[in-house]
Design goal:
globular; alpha/beta; SBP; D-Maltodextrin-Binding Protein, domain 2; disordered N terminus; 466 residues; signal; 2 domains
Length: 466
């Protein structure tokens, strides 16, 4: 499952703004510190109030009557994430009279859509997790520009940066319905307490905390290496903080090669965790068989003797914590990804609604997904973050989630977008290929920095066209 991402600034927004990154990172750190430990709710939100859709206030968004219309929405979401999104679709059905069917898609979704289109049955709307996938859909003539109402709703509720990453050739194609803060490390509070470890602010402090956890008898890190995207996220946080935003933008556009010394430095730094004996649960072979959801649940199952003390990933980790007995803010706590270089990284990703059938119903659904009402429904259910600045923070189910959401909105245009999501999907978003595969191989053999660089560059050159 490719789930949305960490707060990183997209290459088209305030390129090279180190000051912006510092401010955004500082806001995130302050917000998480302010809410640490005072939350009573689990990651799934208020489990006694999951009905959701019908309890939302009357909407200001104008939706047409669509009695008798049918739509299909495709996304790679599964489990709780899919069920919560279906509540948002149910409210759209209630307000318009349309019937919406959720179509489970496979990664990479662009390939799934290609097969559906070849068979003459494209979905009306698809949720695309990469700007690169949006561009591919536009280049192939599949995606349709947003209509006037959807564009108007988007303009009222989103910062310019979030609008821009949904544009191709100056036209608006994507509504970033869901965002992710991917610069977070979640930890088992009891494990840290037993080890005498505190929340680190720098990479060296992270390594020290990890050693303390190890010395207490618990493996420090859980890594969901079976899902290659988790490994690209690790790399991107280290690279952004260490190399800086200017280099990050250049690498994201393949204006510098993956054989650049800055990539060598980042991989060497990653190897301090991935290559450290007994620092990763199950070792490399175990991590490569561990999918992302299990990497979370094994960190918060087993009381103070879990399989690992920490797990890196975005705010959406809360959905999986909600499947355990741990409670966010008490048993499960979080700190910003530590500074590897001068400043802590701030990276984001997201899922954009893109129209594939230019119909009144499809455009209405895009308009709905750009509204604060739609986002508030899923926000209340937990494990979800919206870049929609008109969503009231009170919609989120716990203090941790509220503060993460407030930090995202406060960052405005000052974020870096997930690098692999900006790349052509063949390089940055395909299981078993490109960056995902090479970083999985690097997890297995972290000593082969030069080999990993050479393979990354060869695959990037092919995907970017030289």
């Amino acid at each position: 499952m490719r789930t949305s991402s960490t707060i990183r600034t997209r290459r088209t927004v305030k390129r090279g703004s180190r000051t912006a990154a510092v401010l955004a990172a500082g806001a995130l750190a302050l917000s998480l510190t302010a809410c640490s430990g005072d939350d009573d709710n689990g990651g799934g939100g208020d489990k006694g109030d999951q009905g959701g859709a019908s309890k939302q206030p009357a909407s200001s968004v104008t939706l047409p009557k669509l009695d008798g219309e049918t739509l299909e929405v495709a996304a790679v979401w599964t489990g709780t994430e899919q069920e919560n999104f279906k509540k948002v679709l149910a409210e759209f059905e209630k307000r318009t009279g349309a019937k919406v069917t959720f179509v489970p898609a496979q990664d990479p979704i662009i390939n799934f859509l290609g097969s559906k289109i070849a068979g003459g049955a494209p979905p009306d709307v698809a949720m695309l997790p990469q700007p690169g996938a949006i561009k591919q859909a536009v280049d192939k003539g599949w995606a349709k520009p947003l209509g006037a109402e959807a564009t108007k709703e988007l303009g009222e509720n989103y910062s310019q940066g979030w609008q821009d990453i949904g544009k191709v050739g100056g036209k608006q194609y994507g509504v970033y319905y869901k965002a992710a803060n991917k610069s977070l490390i979640w930890y088992n509070a009891q494990v840290f307490e037993n080890a005498g470890a505190s929340e680190p602010k720098t990479w060296d402090e992270l390594l020290d905390a990890a050693q303390m956890v190890y010395d207490s008898g618990v493996t420090p890190f859980s890594v969901g290496g079976a899902d290659g995207w988790t490994l690209t996220d690790w790399f991107e946080n280290v690279y952004l903080s260490q190399a800086g935003p200017e280099k990050y933008d250049q690498l994201a556009q393949h204006k510098i090669k993956w054989t650049d010394p800055s990539v060598k430095e980042a991989l060497t730094t990653l190897a301090q965790v991935w290559g450290k004996k007994d620092f990763v649960a199950g070792g490399a072979s175990g991590a490569l068989q561990t999918e992302f959801p299990a990497s979370v649940t094994q960190t918060f199952t087993g009381g103070d003797q879990p399989k690992a003390g920490m797990v890196y990933e975005g705010d959406f980790v809360q959905v999986n914590i909600g499947e355990t007995e741990a409670k966010v803010g008490t048993d499960a706590k979080v700190f910003p990804f530590p500074a590897v270089g001068d400043t802590a990284p701030v990276v984001s990703g997201g899922d954009a609604a893109v129209v594939f059938k230019d119909s009144k119903a499809a455009q209405a659904l895009a308009t709905w997904l750009a509204s604060p009402d739609a986002a508030a429904i899923q926000a209340k259910l937990g494990g979800f973050l919206s870049p929609n600045k008109s969503v009231d923070a009170s919609a989120y189910p716990n203090d941790v989630q509220k503060k993460i959401a407030e930090a995202l909105v406060a960052a405005g245009d000052d974020f870096r977008f997930d690098m692999s999501d900006q790349a052509p999907q063949a390089f940055g978003g395909t299981p078993g290929k490109g960056e995902w595969k090479t970083l999985q191989d690097f997890l297995k053999n972290p000593k082969d920095v030069a080999g990993a660089q050479a393979k990354l560059e060869a695959d990037a050159a092919a995907a970017y066209g030289g």
